[in-house]
Amino acid sequence: SFTMNLYLFVYDLMQFCGHSWIFTNMIIRFMTFGKDSLADTFYSIGLVMRVCQLLSILEILHILTGIDKSRLLPRFLQITERIIVLFVVINSQEEVQGKYVVCVLFFLWNLLDVIRYTYNMLARMGIYYLPLTWLNFSLCIPLYPLSVLAKAFAICVSLPYFESFGTYSIKLPFPFAFSIYFPYVLKMYLLVLFAGMCFIIQNLFSERKAHLGTSNIKNKRS
């Protein structure tokens, strides 16, 4: 319906503005301060990044309610990966926030999202530019695995701090005698992260084939 389409357009516009601001801010800061800007990336743009990622949870609801026809599982995995790494790993450990890997991770996320939300906004209006369509469904294939490697590296960097401070580790008193050592949870999550990456990459190739096929391009041109 027109109302739902307008709502999705406004949502994509908000996300586009947020990620464009982050992406532009990162580039300007790097051109101005050089390598010194990398260490305080989280402190300068972390708040806006967290807001954008929390808003992205709505995309799961969009799919569940049927107003977005995207596949649920791939999008769910991508969103939860970011939420876990951003809020559980980076946000909870101040020592990790100053690492260069955070800057790399934010750069990859925002580069992909600026393109994706631009494509989505135009698609809501029935506008399809072939170069933008190609970028949206092609650039994510090499960049997504790089972002997964950056997530995994951020988790590995955080492990010593989780071990030292005991963050999120829980030891239940008697009679339960049960404890959760959070570094072990993160190590197991690394396996889930790479298993999910294989599934999502397969889905990205399927989406690219569906949207960049010869028949689809001809239909969009017409």
TrEMBL record:
TM helices/strands, residue ranges: 7-30, 42-64, 181-201
Alphabetical keyword list: Endoplasmic reticulum, Fatty acid biosynthesis, Fatty acid metabolism, Lipid biosynthesis, Lipid metabolism, Lyase, Membrane, Transmembrane, Transmembrane helix
CC annotations in GO: endoplasmic reticulum membrane
Membrane topology per record: Multi-pass membrane protein
Broad EC category: lyase
Keyword ATP-binding found: no
Subcellular location: Endoplasmic reticulum membrane; Membrane
Role of this protein: Catalyzes the third of the four reactions of the long-chain fatty acids elongation cycle. This endoplasmic reticulum-bound enzymatic process, allows the addition of two carbons to the chain of long- and very long-chain fatty acids/VLCFAs per cycle. This enzyme catalyzes the dehydration of the 3-hydroxyacyl-CoA intermediate into trans-2,3-enoyl-CoA, within each cycle of fatty acid elongation. Thereby, it participates to the production of VLCFAs of different chain lengths that are involved in multiple biological processes as precursors of membrane lipids and lipid mediators.
Entry EC number(s): 4.2.1.134
Catalytic reaction equation(s): a very-long-chain (3R)-3-hydroxyacyl-CoA = a very-long-chain (2E)-enoyl-CoA + H2O; (3R)-hydroxyhexadecanoyl-CoA = (2E)-hexadecenoyl-CoA + H2O
Main location class: endoplasmic reticulum
Pfam families recorded: PTPLA (PF04387)
InterPro entries xref list: Tyr_Pase-like_PTPLA
Protein name as catalogued: Very-long-chain (3R)-3-hydroxyacyl-CoA dehydratase
GO BP annotation list: fatty acid elongation; sphingolipid biosynthetic process; very long-chain fatty acid biosynthetic process
Pathway: Lipid metabolism; fatty acid biosynthesis
Family according to the record: Belongs to the very long-chain fatty acids dehydratase HACD family.
UniProt-recorded Gene Ontology molecular function terms: very-long-chain (3R)-3-hydroxyacyl-CoA dehydratase activity
